[in-house]
Amino acid sequence: MNKIISIFTGMALFACACNQSTNKNQNNNADSAGQQVTTAAKVPVFNVDSAYAFTAKQVSFGPRIPNTPAQPKCAEWLIQELKPLADTVYVQRTTVMGPKNQPLPCINIIATFNPDAKQRILLLSHWDTRPHADQDAFDKTKHLDGADDGASGVAVLLETARELHAQKQGVGVDLLLTDVEDYGISEEENSFCLGTQYWAKNPHVKGYKANYGILLDMVGARGSQFFMEAGSQQYAYGPMKMFWDVANRLGYSDYFRYENNGSAITDDHVYVNTMANIPTFDIIALQPNGNFAPHWHTQNDNMSVIDKRTLQVVGQTILQVIYAQPFEY
Question: Please, what are the domains in the chain?
């Protein structure tokens, strides 16, 4: 993925500051019948062994690159995993135009829980793999496993789906697994996140809306730290601050940092924010200087970097938000 690092401008920072109070009381936690949404008092315990296994299973298919055998095989596995869990599973099969007008098959998968609820949370992650290790120090033409960059976020969502099925709650939740996120080239910024761009123009349900969205991208590596990305602050500061606060109360302050490292990243959340108009923030591992982790877009992005503790921190915070305080921002 391109995820261009840039310095947030003063204007954007001003917009972020203004947005801090915009949605504070926007949601009244009402369901489709106008009733008050109630959440279960008991928050499930995130099964990190299961999430780790889901990560390894995706990697076992090989690099999930469009136009390779691994793409339809992994897609079918994802669909079959979600069908017994979700109320409805939608599959978008289309062709998107990649860099230099290259046609690419694209398979978006959407799993819906509690579809009648009006108050909804969108959780998304891309499941495809970068076609080449363009940041590798030795061979930039090689493929990479994409264990952290793609598979880890999807694994956390799959385990979240298992919990949503096992323990019902009053909030609507939609899982969006997007394809062809990582095929772009740096010269064409909008050549990334093609599956998300397609979904934003063609949502699985006409007129689909969610109160906010959470993007998971690179959420499984050892020693990860998650800073408050600038574009996320601009469009979704309220729910993002709520999420960070929950994580810190759970004891995860070493992972979820409040410091602003000045990074604005081109990722799936950009198009959910600007095209679908759903306030969405990005949970993505960054270094304090704003750079990506050393394994980003290299052959080192394999199962050796995946850490159960990191998966558990992210997954447990998601469950805490969904089941205990989904709209308290």
Answer: 6-24+39-324 (3.40.630.10)
pLDDT in tens, 9-59: 333 433 333 333 334 333 434 443 333 444 445 999 999 999 999 999 999
Q: Write the pLDDT tens digit of every residue in 57-93.
A: 999 999 999 999 999 999 999 999 999 999 999 999 9
Phi, psi of 173 (to 5 degrees): -130, 135
Could you tell me if 13 and 231 are in contact, meaning their C-beta atoms sit under 8 angstroms apart?
A: no
Provide the token pair at 51. 């999430």
Q: What is the DSSP letter of 30?
A: B
The four Cα atoms 159, 163, 169, 174 give a dihedral, to 10 degrees, of 20
d(CA 257, CA 254): 7
Cα distances (angstroms) measured from residue 259 to each of 198, 204, 223: 33, 36, 17
Query: What phi, psi does 7 have (nearest 5°)?
Result: -90, 130
Give me 108's structure tokens: 């978006």
Per-residue pLDDT tens digits for 130-139: 999 999 999 9
- Is the confidence at residue 271, as pLDDT, over 80? yes
pLDDT at 250: 98
Place of tokens 């990243």: 265
Cα within 13 Å of Cα(13), Cβ side: 9
Cα 76 from Cα 93, distance rounded (Å):
12
Separation CA 20–CA 289 (nearest Å): 24
Q: Which residue has the tokens 């990722």?
A: 267
Among 187, 226, 213, 206, residue whose Cα is nearest residue 4: 187
Residues near 326 by beta carbon (within 8 Å), at least 6 away in sequence: 29, 37, 39, 119, 121, 171, 211
Identify the residue with better confidence: 111 or 188: 111
β 212-217/6-7 pair status: unpaired
